[in-house]
Amino acid sequence: MHDRKGYSLLLAVIITSAVLSTATALAGIILSEVRQTREVSYAIAAQITAEGEIEAGLFVLRKGSFELLQSNPELWTSEEGHEAREESPLRPFRIEENDFISLPISSSDRPMKITRWDPADTCENEGGESWIEVSTIAWDPENTTSPFQTSHSPRAHSDYEQNDSVLEIPVPVHTVEIRVRALYCPIEAFNVDLPTRVVLRATATHGSVRQTSEVTVPRSTPVSGLFDFVIFSECELTKGVPVSGDCE
């Protein structure tokens, strides 16, 4: 009888230990899931906050300028962590003969510096020299008669070589785009020291999670708009419906 009671007590201890171990494991799993769920919600909130920082920077960049954004950090919505920096083209361009590259800019406070110009082996012109045509497109919204101004400047590869492989091109005021066209032969590698992109980086913390978001955007979208033409109307325009007399 005493042996049976001993076995019963041992069995009860074993079952109780198994139940406690299982309960402890389940509790650990549940707490881990709850913690992960909380961190996911923290991560989402931190990511949204960081993206909001970038949106604030983009607003200042579009409505003002990069210089305004860089010199006035209080224009950002918070002070947790943000950065705005310029980037020049990292990879050299290859320009086919009579083709061009386009460099959108938003400021003409510095000249464009040609830092690499490697033409093809042969050029089909007298003297066999590579040439480029640098065209600047300026847009002055205060000039109502002729808001767009263009200028064209041909340059020879010998000009680049005579200046220790660095050639400066002056940029007129209100310039929004620079085009470089290859003349007489292709250019295998062409690069300039001219900031054309802006990197915006913002960091936000929510709870125990810290998130960082970064975007790279053109330094300036075309001031004249994204489309070749725009229709302005004081009345609603509906496809297939004639325009009323008041709107003609």
Q: How would you summarize the topology of this molecule?
A:
Layout: H1 2-63, H2 66-71, E1 82-87, E2 93-95, E3 100-104, E4 112-119, E5 131-139, E6 148-156, H3 157-162, E7 167-169, E8 175-183, E9 187-193, E10 197-206, E11 209-218
Antiparallel strand pairs: 1-10, 2-9, 3-8, 4-7, 4-9, 5-6, 5-8, 10-11
Low-confidence stretches: 221-230
What is the class of the domain at 89-194 in the CATH system? Mainly Beta
Global shape: elongated
According to CATH, the fold-level topology of the domain at 89-194 is Jelly Rolls
Number of strand segments: 11
Radius of gyration: 32 Å
How much helicity do the residues have? 25-40%
Supply the number of helical segments.
3
Largest sheet: 4 strands, antiparallel
**Topology as H/E string?**
HHEEEEEEHEEEEE
Mean pLDDT over all positions: 76
Under the CATH scheme, the architecture of the domain at 89-194 is Sandwich
Distance between the termini: 111 Å
Q: What portion of the residues fall into strands of 2 or more residues? A: 25-35%
Helix and strand composition category: alpha+beta
Report strand order across the widest sheet. Answer: 2-9-4-7
Care to describe what's here?
- With 248 residues, the chain is α+β, with helices and mostly antiparallel strands.
- The chain is built from three helices and eleven strands; from the N terminus they run H-H-E-E-E-E-E-E-H-E-E-E-E-E.
- The strands form three sheets. The chain has a four-stranded antiparallel sheet with strand order 2-9-4-7.
- The radius of gyration is 32 Å and the shape is elongated.
- The relative contact order is 0.19.
